[in-house]
Amino acid sequence: MDPTDAIAISDLAEARAAEGRKDVDTAVRMAQRSYAAQDNLAAHYLAIKLRCQTGDLANAQPEASKIRPSELTQALIAECQRRDIELKKK
After folding, report:
1. Report field, pTM of the whole predicted structure over 0.85
2. What is the pLDDT of residue 88?
3. Distance, CA of 77 to CA of 64 (rounded, Å)
4. Angle CA(12)–CA(13)–CA(14) in degrees, nearest 5?
């Protein structure tokens, strides 16, 4: 789930730090850089969660479509549903 590539690890750490600072734009951007460097679910989950937490209807589902529907967790789906965002899980 977590990356093993040094760049992906560093970018994910920066994404998590930005999330802690409530800097959502940077957090999403760094999560995306992390999974671009090495595909990893931790970065995908963080980006999806942040899109949902901010009520970003336009980008939550497209972000979620970057992973297999079977990889969506119930917790992530529930997080999005709390903000009236339905993620499609097949």
Report:
1. yes
2. 77
3. 10
4. 90
